[in-house]
Amino acid sequence: MKTIKIKVKNSGIVKMQFFDDFPDGNLVIGEARKNIPFDIRRVYYINNLFNKKSNRGHHAHKKLEQIIFCVNGSFVLNLDDGENKQKIIMDNPYYGVRLGQLLWHTMEKFSSDCVILVLANDYYKESDYLRSYDKFIKYLKRK
Ligand code: T46
Known about the structure:
globular
């Protein structure tokens, strides 16, 4: 995943600092306004992804900035900026993907040991979500 080129707008790869040569396990570090490009106001994670048919996301954010990581296992992240689409296999805990503003995203094909970590620059606000693709495209056209 680290070598892929991001083709959609408002995204990018975020590289964590890591020490992976410890005999007792690895250490991965992100620091706000250093490798994480914003101040972190909220952290959430998604686990227990045992249902093979799970399909999450299906929304875009108006203002929110986030970085998404797969800290264990793997899943497929689908990004769509309204013009370009990209499928990313998330399987490397040292690299995150920026979910910037107005980027429709879905998450699927989770391994049963998958754990997703998200860092966000703001608190949860349902009013920031565009939860229908139609509204997302209309919102993009208004801008
Ligand atoms: C995103 C992707 C990557 C809260 O009450 N507080 C929160 O901080 C979050 C994240 C969610 N919720 C509530 C809202 C829904 O009633 O939890 C419920 C499930 O949320 P949602 O269906 O949006 O979950 P995902 O996995 O589809 O999306 C989440 C984030 O919501 C979203 O911002 O970008 O992960």
